[in-house]
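Input record, target 12 of the design panel.
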């Protein structure tokens, strides 16, 4: 896939999209003699005509020099050379400015051993991950600074690692080994930008996987979360599976059959994506929702540092997925299954069935649309009714009666009417 990006038009898009406060910060620094540029993701996105996220500024000025030029600054990360400039009210007025820096060796595969200030912009750009993320735009001179040919990659519609060696494969192995998170970033950008990784860059992932193993699980799940939030997560998941990333982070998932899996993740609504992703771990479950499976999937996601809320939802809907393998569900069985999933999650479990292309989705949707009771609390009577109407004493018999009525209603939803239930309770 190759297209020509009209460079003049791309530069105009850059000029037009730099926010006024970012431009003012760059102009003030440039006026004091320090080259200052917008850099990274926002430059890439503006060229592509996508809505840029945060604008990051890089500058030749040292943090002290930056702080000397602006009235209101926050020393956000001085050890990395980052100062936040407050240009107005609210967080949107903040501009992060980072001094050009080079990096020493990475002996721990997470952070450089030391950073060096006083390096030229090209060296700052060289430490970035992908060529498309290593472009800078100088608003004062209206110049694109692109020493690693990121624009050419955008034109060719491909993502390559930045690097000094001239061999894309060697560069990729080097960059990915330095910081193990970069392999996940690489596949994430493949999905986010909907551009494939160049084959040599993708090949560079596998030898770098020992570095990924050293990265904190919080950073790994952050990337996974961002991947699952893209329009088509499969564009990241397929290369992640092919290169061994998935096997590195969730070994059990690496054995699954790809085609149904990735299609299901792509089709799932956002809130069901994590459940769709781990859904195949639920295949061990029997006909009913298996609590052992819920726990197994929950533990796995907990180890990856997903929040309780995220992992409870994902493990419960993922564990309802094996139901799609069974075709002879009766209506009462299906209601019992959705009752096990619980009301707050039932709609997402059904959405996941739909994403999996299962005929159960239509039947589940009908049950939810009719409002069939899925819990004792959804019966047309309460424990108080049993006491006041039938004179039952408070105690365990109340709960037992309600549960018995609920079982009847699961079989026959039409029974869920006040008088009918009171009549049943009497007998
Ligand atoms: P997003 O739209 O997801 O924010 P981004 O490109 O802005 O994408 P950030 O994580 O915000 O990504 O990082 C900003 C820039 O910093 C990147 O474009 C890249 O140049 C550089 N960068 C960030 N993280 C890394 C990393 N782990 N290794 C190398 N370079 C990185
Ligand atoms: Mg960003």
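The sequence produced for target 12 reads:
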């Amino acid at each position: 896939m190759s297209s020509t990006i009209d460079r003049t038009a791309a530069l105009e898009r850059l000029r037009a999209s730099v926010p006024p406060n970012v431009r003012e910060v760059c102009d003030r620094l440039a006026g004091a003699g320090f080259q200052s540029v917008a850099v990274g993701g926002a430059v890439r996105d503006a060229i592509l005509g996508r809505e840029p996220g945060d604008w990051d500024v890089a500058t030749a000025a040292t943090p002290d020099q930056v702080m000397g030029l602006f009235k209101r600054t926050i020393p956000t990360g001085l050890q990395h050379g980052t100062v936040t400039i407050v240009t107005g009210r609210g967080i949107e007025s903040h501009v992060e400015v980072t001094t050009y820096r080079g990096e020493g060796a990475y002996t721990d595969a997470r952070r450089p051993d030391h950073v060096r200030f006083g390096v030229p912009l090209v060296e700052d750009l060289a430490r970035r991950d992908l060529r498309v993320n290593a472009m800078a735009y100088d608003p004062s001179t209206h110049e694109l600074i692109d020493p690693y040919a990121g624009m050419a990659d955008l034109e060719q519609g491909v993502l390559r690692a930045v690097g000094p060696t001239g061999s894309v494969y060697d560069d990729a192995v080097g960059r990915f080994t330095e910081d193990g998170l970069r392999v996940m970033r690489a596949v994430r950008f493949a999905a986010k930008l909907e551009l494939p990784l160049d084959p040599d860059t993708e090949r560079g992932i596998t030898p770098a996987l020992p570095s990924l193993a050293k990265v904190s699980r919080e950073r790994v799940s952050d990337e996974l979360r961002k991947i699952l939030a893209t329009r088509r997560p499969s564009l990241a998941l397929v290369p992640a599976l092919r290169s061994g990333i998935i096997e590195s982070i969730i070994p059990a998932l690496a054995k699954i059959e790809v085609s149904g899996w990735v299609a299901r993740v792509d089709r799932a609504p956002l809130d069901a994506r994590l459940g769709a992703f781990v859904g195949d771990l639920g295949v061990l479950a029997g006909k009913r929702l298996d609590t052992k499976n819920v726990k197994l999937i929950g533990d796995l996601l907990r180890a990856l540092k997903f929040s309780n809320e995220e992992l409870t939802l994902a493990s419960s809907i993922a564990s309802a997925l094996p139901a799609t393998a069974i075709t002879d569900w009766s209506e009462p069985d299906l209601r019992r299954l959705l009752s096990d999933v619980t009301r707050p999650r039932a709609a997402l479990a059904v959405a996941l069935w739909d994403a999996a292309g299962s005929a159960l989705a239509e039947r589940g949707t009908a049950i939810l649309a009719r409002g069939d009771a899925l819990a004792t609390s959804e019966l047309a009577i309460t424990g108080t009714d049993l006491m006041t109407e039938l004179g039952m004493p408070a105690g365990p018999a109340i709960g037992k009666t309600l549960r018995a009525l609920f079982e009847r209603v699961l079989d026959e939803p039409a029974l869920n009417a006040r008088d009918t239930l009171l009549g049943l309770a009497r007998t």
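Residues 41, 53-54 surround magnesium ion (ligand 2) (CB under 6 Å).
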